[in-house]
Design brief:
heterodimer; A: about 400 residues; OB fold (Dihydrolipoamide Acetyltransferase, E2P); Rossmann fold; 5-stranded parallel sheet; 15 strands; B: mainly alpha; about 0% strand
């Protein structure tokens, strides 16, 4: 309708000067020559009122943040029944238009299509592959969680059930835990930026040893900020380990892959970051008990060994004496066996002279001499009758 | 026992004395001297065990007092 508009300039000498209105009208007219195209972006700042002729929103480039104002006739917008929310990715079919009163460039929308789930999945998969190729999800990058964190950062939405779950579980398991909570948007167009800022703030807090990012279940769209490239890079760059618990089992936002640990629920995340104090104390107690038991058992063993060796010591001298006695008796027996008495028993006799000396020769004996004869049994005196050489 | 031996050293000596006595290859005088030495070592080891037991009991008592769970 602006085509062919005549734009009048006022001449000041040889200078042609346009009024703002005529300049705008001229540009607006020129813009009508541009083709009608599809533009992709995220819906933000959607403003729709029944009293208004048009619906307004800003289309934002999720990668660069570049913005473009969009207007659409309200009746046309309502007829689409899109029920669009902030942060949703859309394709807008329209053409450039200048809002002459303000000199603002607008996209006059003729149609809007929600960016399909399939498109989202394909885009996520492209991003996942790219980041994986960079090594951001590598296991080697994962840091171990502290056993007893001095301070725990919690990044969550305000008033979220996830927040309550994490806090309740942490304080129940480990009452002395110190928590620093950073609340931010966890869905919508401001979520990624808000979370990155919150992460930075938490990581900078003194004595903070671990950060939990917790968010309850939500639609695929709601969880999209948790797959944003900027957030993933911020998690990777975070100086302390990060635990994610986002959505329900089965949701796998890309931030889970970049986190040092991922939990299926906020409660599970809380269990990952603090030990159960009761269990810890019980284990310590058992160790202490084992220590005492060990000391007692060692003592008992040493005492039994000492008892045994002492018993042997008490018996050893008696055994030694018995053995000596036995040996002595053996010798006595052998001694007795060698004595002349056994010879006498065989019928020999010992003959002694008057001096009591044993006689071995008849020489020197005179008839009438007195001798003593000793037999095996008894003895008798005798007189010598005669001698023979 | 002039220079105080360790419990283990005393126990080892006691055991070797008992073994010598049990083999019975010593002189009678020596055997009696060894027996006396063995008894001395036994009393020393026993005193060491009693002292250790005392310390265990003391620590255990203190531990049960301190432990919140009893």
């Amino acid at each position: 309708m602006l085509r062919g508009v005549k734009v009048e300039a006022i001449d000041y000498g040889d200078r042609k000067v346009f009024s703002v209105a005529s300049f705008n009208r001229g540009v607006a007219s020129w813009l009508t020559r541009l083709p009608t195209v599809w533009v992709e972006g995220e819906v933000t700042e959607l403003r729709r009122q029944t009293a208004w002729q048009s619906v307004f929103f800003t289309l934002k480039d999720p990668a660069s943040g570049a913005c473009l104002g969009v207007t659409m006739a309200r009746t046309r917008f309502d007829a689409l029944r899109l029920d669009l929310g902030d942060g949703e990715r859309v394709h807008v079919f329209g053409r450039a238009e200048l809002y002459e009163a303000r000199g603002d460039l607008k996209l006059r929308a003729l149609s809007i299509e929600r960016f399909g789930l399939g498109d989202h999945l394909a885009a996520l998969e492209r991003l996942r592959k790219q980041l994986a190729a960079e090594g951001l999800f590598a296991d080697a990058r994962k840091r171990p969680l502290p056993r007893l964190p001095r301070r725990i950062g919690l990044l969550t939405g305000n008033d979220a059930a996830a927040k309550q779950d994490v806090i309740a579980t942490i304080t129940a398991r480990y009452p002395p835990a110190r928590l620093l909570v950073a609340e931010t948007y966890v869905q919508g167009p401001r979520a990624a930026g808000g979370m990155i800022e919150a992460l930075r703030r938490l990581a900078g807090a003194p004595e903070l040893d671990v950060i939990v990012i917790a968010r309850g279940g939500g639609s695929f769209q709601d969880l999209l900020p948790f797959s944003s490239e900027a957030l993933i890079r911020a998690i990777v760059a975070c100086p302390v380990p990060v635990v994610t618990a986002v959505g329900h089992e089965g949701d796998t936002p890309l931030c889970d892959l970049a986190a040092d640990a991922r939990a299926s629920t906020p409660t599970a995340a809380a269990r990952l970051v603090v030990p159960d104090l009761g269990e810890l104390l019980a284990r310590l107690d058992r160790a202490r008990g084992a220590l005492e038991g060990g000391a007692r058992r060692t003592l008992e063993r040493e005492r039994r060994r000492l008892d045994t060796v002492h018993e042997r010591l008490g018996r050893a001298p008696m055994l030694d004496l018995e053995r000596r006695r036995g040996r002595l008796e053996g010798s006595a027996g052998r001694l007795r066996a060698l004595s002349p008495r056994s010879t006498l028993a065989r019928g020999y006799a010992i003959v002694r002279g008057e001096q009591g000396a044993i006689l071995r020769s008849a020489a020197g004996l005179l008839p009438g001499a007195r001798v003593e004869v000793e037999l095996a049994e008894g003895a008798f005196g005798a007189d010598v009758r005669e001698t023979r050489p | 026992m002039s220079a105080e031996p360790t419990f283990e050293a005393a126990e080892r000596e006691l055991e070797s004395i008992v073994e010598r006595l049990e083999r019975g290859q010593t002189g009678l005088e020596e055997a009696i001297a060894l027996w006396e030495r063995g008894e001395t070592l036994y009393r020393f080891c026993l005193a060491r065990l009693d002292a250790a037991q005392g310390r265990v009991e003391e620590l255990a008592a203190r531990m049960h007092e301190e432990a919140p769970g009893g």
